[in-house]
Write a structure and sequence with these properties.
The protein has about 130 residues and is an alpha+beta fold. Helices cover about 35% and strands about 35% of the residues. The protein is built from 3 helices and 7 strands; from the N terminus they run αααβββββββ. A hairpin with a 4-residue loop joins strand 6 and strand 7. The longest helix has about 30 residues. It comes from Halovivax cerinus.
Length: about 130
């Protein structure tokens, strides 16, 4: 038996062997395209889920005798300021340059939170410990 005939039966002719590399290249390109599409989809979805923080200018001052005044000084992107803390009497400030006042004790903590009602986002903008 001739060696070339035996080789063609075991390995295949030149025309038959060329099919395997072509299929391999096509599969690699297909896998690359699919991976790129999946990664692009994930990246695009993550970009939309990030919420912007609310910003606003607020000052919190205490006069040393227990009275604390919170003033909304700069609107930023906030719709309102909610004043929270250990003191009683605080609430919501709805307009810039308005204030909220309460009587507090030493070491009480007062926190101002900017609120964006459109996107339902709250961000703490200032905090103060009464001295």
């Amino acid at each position: 038996m001739d060696a070339t005939i035996l080789r063609d039966k075991l390995i295949g002719s030149d025309d038959e062997r060329a099919v395997s590399p072509v299929i391999g290249v096509i599969l690699m390109v297909a896998i690359t395209v699919i991976l790129a599409a999946v990664i692009a989809t994930l990246v695009m979805d993550f970009g939309d889920s990030v919420q912007q923080e609310v910003n606003a200018g607020v000052t919190i001052e205490d006069d040393g005798s227990g009275n604390v005044v919170v003033t909304w000084t700069s609107e930023g992107t906030a719709d309102e300021i909610i004043v929270r803390g250990d003191c009683s009497g605080f609430g919501t400030i709805s307009d810039v340059e308005n204030t909220a006042t309460a009587s507090c004790s030493t070491d009480d903590v007062v926190t101002a939170v900017a609120v964006d009602n459109t996107n339902n986002v709250e961000t703490q903008v200032d905090s103060h410990t009464v001295s």
